[in-house]
Amino acid sequence: MTQVLEFSQLVDRTLSALADVLGSDGAALMLIDDHDRLRAVGGSDDRGRQLELIQEQIGAGPAIETLSRGEDVVVDDLRAARPFGFPGVAARVPEVRAVLSVPLRSGKKLIGTLNFYDRTIHEWQSAKVRTGERLGELMVMVLQSMAHKSSL
Amino acid sequence: MTHIDPEALVASLRRLQTTSSTTGIVQQLERAVDVVNSLFGYAGAGLMFAEEGKDLRYLVATDERGRSLEGAQLHLGQGPCVSAYEENRAVTSSDVRVDPRWPKLADRLHPEVRAVAGVPVRLGGEPVGTLNVYQAKLYEWDESDVQALYGYAEVIEQLLTVAMAAEEKSALADQLQYALDYRVVIERAIGYLMGKHDMTATQAFTGLRKQARDTRRRVADLAAEVLGEGAGEIR
After folding, report:
1. A 20-79 → B contacts, CB under 8 A
2. Domain check: are B160 and B177 in the same one?
3. Chain B interface disruption, residue of A3, A6, A11, most B CBs within 10 A
4. What DSSP assignment string belongs to B171-206?
5. Phi, psi of B152 (to 5 degrees)
6. Are the C-beta atoms of residues B67 and B76 closer than 8 Å to each other?
């Protein structure tokens, strides 16, 4: 198996595991690439991948805002009008309703965002938001491990 | 099939190479256990891995109490984490100090180790160690606790997989490679012994391990002999 395929599977499994731990319907990842562009890396399912792709395409969404503010963005209902929701994104991924987006850092540097999502509207409890932040640290560990142990 | 864009992933990892320094797998595991411990808010957490010729050996423990839990199990060859490894499933105890499954454990434990939960950490589908958490009081573990532990174990498995894929040169990598290579043989020998002697999996594994220890051999070598000769007897 090529290393790239293996790493894709690793990221896929890690995202699924992190979603399971948080108790969310899925998790997805956007990362800044070597041309300083924010890229939709993917998700634990097709919904997650779509969520990130739409944000990359239209340049707006909870992940984009997380990166710009450098802090968590909590969305109880993606379809709500701005500033609480992102109806432009919601229209393209109708099955995603609640989103928690946490910034990912390597050292002090922002490298992307980890986005948990659910199919139903709900309020994100602060304990869950804190858990999401710490799960982001685990995601960074896996990414750092891949970055330094590969011939890219 | 994954839902990952490999090109986007590679381009991002290239950038990450320039923004972070490399760390060894042991350091990564220590940090991962630290995160797990803080997320659970329990008294402590730890990781144990199988070692050639021996059983589980602790690698990471968040504090002295955790070390006493793991040390006690290593010394006695029994306990919830040992069972989780041998049986390849989650094992919990609401109060390990009075649990009839491991009556000798209490004497060797720190008094603040009470409720314990362990799940296997796997490589290639086979258990190579366990992720363990404990509480300083009685606690009834529920399904959500166990599922969360499995989730964390899965993340740790990804860290291990990357380390193994990179053929990292370290004592842990050697241990894990051994566990990977030979666990399959051990599993087959267990299956054979269960059928031949009408044993449970735990009985078969315990018997293999005891005989290996008594004859100063590796479990995997004994397992291979059992399979090869088809007539190995476990006393």
Report:
1. 20-21, 23, 31-36, 39-46, 48-49
2. no
3. A11
4. HHHHHHHHHHHHHHHHHHHHHHHHHHHT--HHHHHH
5. -65, -40
6. no
What are the boundaries of each domain within chain A?
A: 3-147
Does B54 fall in a domain? yes
Q: Which of B12, B21, B32 sits opposite A33 (nearest CB)?
A: B12
In a mutational test of the B interface, the residue from A10, A12, A24, A67 whose CB has the highest number of chain B CBs within 10 Å is: A10
| Nearest-Cα residue of chain A relative to residue B17 | A147
pLDDT interval class at B72 (50, 70, 90): confident
Q: Which residues of A touch B161 (CB under 8 A)?
A: 6, 10
pLDDT at A152: 63
Residue contact A16–B20, C-beta within 8 A:
no
B89 shares its domain with B182: no
pLDDT over 70 percentage in chain B: 81
CB atoms within 10 A of CB B76: 15
- The verdict on B138 and B217 lying in the same domain is no
A4, two tokens: 């790239």
Q: What is the CATH number of the domain that holds B182?
A: 1.10.10.10
In a shared domain, residues B54 and B161:
yes
pTM surpassing 0.90?
A: no
CATH of the domain at B70: 3.30.450.40
The pLDDT of residue B123 is 82
Q: Which of B128, B212, B213 is CA-nearest to residue B223?
A: B212
- Count of domains for chain B: 2
Report if residue B104 sits inside a domain.
yes
Query: Which residues form the domain of B71?
Result: 23-165
Give one DSSP letter per residue of B46-111, joined into a string.
EEEEE-TTS-EEEEEESSHHHHHHHHHHHHHT-SHHHHHHHHTS-EEES-TTS-TTSTTSGGGS-T
CA distance A81 to chain B (A): 29
Mean pLDDT value of segment B222-233? 70
Class of domain A3-147: alpha beta
Domain boundary residue, one of B148, B165, B182: B165
Mean pLDDT of B32-52: 80
- For B96-137, what is each residue's pLDDT tens digit? 999 999 999 988 888 889 999 999 999 878 888 899 999 999
